[in-house]
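batch_manifest entry 22 of 60
target: Capsule polysaccharide export protein
source organism: Leptothrix ochracea L12
requested by: lab member K.T.
priority: normal
notes from requester: please return tokens only, no post-processing; we will run our own comparison against the previous entry in this batch. if the run fails, retry once and flag.
--- input ---
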Amino acid sequence: MSDERIQDQETHEEVSLLDLALVLLEHRNIVLGMPLGVALLVLGLSFLIAPKFAATTQIMLPQQPQSGAAALLGSLGGLGGGGLGGAAGAIAGLKNPADQWIGLLKSRTVQDGMVARFHLRERYESKYQFQARQTLEGLTQIKSGKDGLISISVEDHDPATAMAMADAYIDELQKLSKTLAVTEAGQRRLFFEIQLKEAKEQLIKAEVALRQSGVSESVLKTSPDAAVAVLAQIKAQVAAAEVKVAVMRGQFTTDSPDLKQAQLELTSVRSQLAKAEQNDPKSAQGSGSQYVARFREFKYQETLFELLARQFEMAKADEAKDGAIIQVVDKATLPEWKSSPKRGMMTVLAGVLSLILGTAFVLIRQALRNARERDPVFAEKLKKLRWRRPS
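--- output ---
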């Protein structure tokens, strides 16, 4: 008995498939004719669309130099391998440093530079600046690959303009990068520039105060150099730890374990500095004590100024190298073939979509027709749902 049911079920399925095939064959004008007609229509309309040409340029991903950080450790001393070198290593270990440069290429500053350079508001017939930027963004594709290269592709109706715009992105990026401390060396340079200015002012004040203190015979017998060296060394450690934190804040979030560790190191060396200043006998009474205190303050400011000056020059040299790191691997060339519209793809997609819709329309209509014939109640409900023209 079960074998008979299985056989009946298979026969029913064969009849159903045959019925579907007959229905599709009966309405072949819709199933096949409509996709063919729509595909030809789309193909014809595609020739009315003005072609666009894409030009692509590639640049090498800017690398973060670590030589400056290593030299900083050597000159500061006392921090060892866990100092700024740790920050440099952490920065080098970022998952995708290309994201920052892609963000700069997509920034409003770069886009405004492109709009002004190529008069894109007039070219794109945009009334407002933001509309021109949006159009430019839609015609520009910027992405990075696993090979460490950033590709910039720009589409335009004129091949020569597309080529010029792709190369112009690099020029605008160079202009922007010169005004920002976007690299580890740039951040160090900016930090030392501020600290150097403050140290110079303090050095001048200390020198003036030293000249006003006067010198006696007992003062000349005093040698505060050793105490000065200790304080200068600890303060140098504080300066290095501050550099490390400043650099890492620009590269990591506040929840980063590396940043938290750097902040703990900074707190530790600041605590050592506070203890050293409390134990410092510069406030001792006696003959020549005022001169000794002022002399030691002057020596510290002098040492700190020389240290910051060396690091400022080193950071400037590293930053100058950074500017040359943005190298063009492949300059944009004149496009020889259009990038859009892709007429073949448009025609095939239109034909396939029309085939699916046409087949679905035929099958649904046939299913409703069969349901009306088999079920009078269902047919009456469908009749009530029909739209009637008001009399």
